[in-house]
Amino acid sequence: MKTKTIKVSNNFITEIIEIERKIISFLIRYPNLFFKHLGKLSEYEFCDKIAEELFTVFSILKKEHNEITLQGLMDYLSGSVYEKSVNEILSAAKLPTYEITESEFLILIEKLNIYSNKMKLISFLDESKELLNNSIDPEEVKIKLLENLTTIKKNKSFVVQNVKEILNSYKDFVRQPDEQRARTGFRKVDEAIRGILPGETVCIIGKTSIGKSALLQNIGHNFSSSGLPILFFSLELPDISVAERIIQIETGCDGYSAENLFRNDSETLQHSADLIYTTLSNFYVITESGLTTERIEAYINFVEKYICKQKIGLILIDYLGLLSGKGELYEQVSMNAKQLKEIAKRVNVPIIFLSQTTKQADVFSELNINSTRDSGVVAESVDFLFGIWKKKEEQADSNEIPLVIGLLKNRRGHLGKINIEMNRRNLRMKEINE
């Protein structure tokens, strides 16, 4: 059989080399995190450049430490015997310097694995074409095609870490920029949970019309100041309703005033629209009905790759009960809650979603961890569970509705209750001190 040729463009090779160099930068800066995720690179078979440049770095260090071992290299990179800065090492190795976060590193690994599979696929097609042209035995062709297809499938690797390794990973993580943690914008909530990490999930439960959706959009509004993209899945409200709430929260006007504002072309309208777009230019809305969790993950990957072209900072879903799935309602809700957690870990983004409470609760009932409706698995699968209920009957002449956010499950701290108010005109929410 003739030697097959893998046909790839120069641009394709250039992009692979750039990704490999970014990975080298990440290795030098955060070696423990690099080795923590090394198993994810198991599918990538084209590591010549990585190995070559690692050897260059190793050679530079060896000039200073003649008896350096692999453990010595690890200690050196971990900062135990740091005598040169990261940039100095990379410069000496004639490598460009990149500031790469753990989230970006995981995306780079995924890209390399995709490219690896692309090159395997090209090779597979070349070989299959040759088989079809030259073989007279259909069974031989069938067996070879199945073998080639099997090699393209992803293989899960085993990653086992000892305590020292996970402590080093923890150290590397906490030293990364604070932007890695999503904040709700409610100070007492954020202090209690210490931010929401990539891969974590939050469920907010409450009765119908209590203000769950408004709370979710307020969190989105607050988070938008981070500059990171927000992806809002509105399975309940259509785009017009989402837009009106955005106008209310951003401008402080009520729904009636929002209609009047946008009914007539004016300088005021243009100024308001420009202000809203500037503030929420990173806020993306999806109102497709009947979404499955698989479709949600596909949307996340699509938006990151083709729309915002960067890592999403926060995902909001309104609400869990409207996601499609197989089986009875309890099975659907249970499976979807579990799958949202798996998606959060896979895409490495925090997810906040809404859910209903049991029928026994009313708008004034203090909620607890058993108040989730349709499935107890919801509370088990999430990292944080918030409840929202009315504190007391509001004054008839008051625009402020007193509410309570209950911290019903908190992986990183205490439980408790936080008093907030929602303005009935513009749906803005704020913490209150009592």
UniProtKB/TrEMBL annotation:
Give the keywords, sorted. Answer: ATP-binding, Helicase, Hydrolase, Nucleotide-binding, Primosome
Which GO cellular component term is one of those annotated?
Answer: cytosol
Gene Ontology biological process: DNA replication, synthesis of primer
Report domain SF4 helicase positions: 175-434
Q: Single GO molecular-function term?
A: DNA helicase activity
Protein name, UniProt field? Putative helicase
The species this protein belongs to is viral metagenome
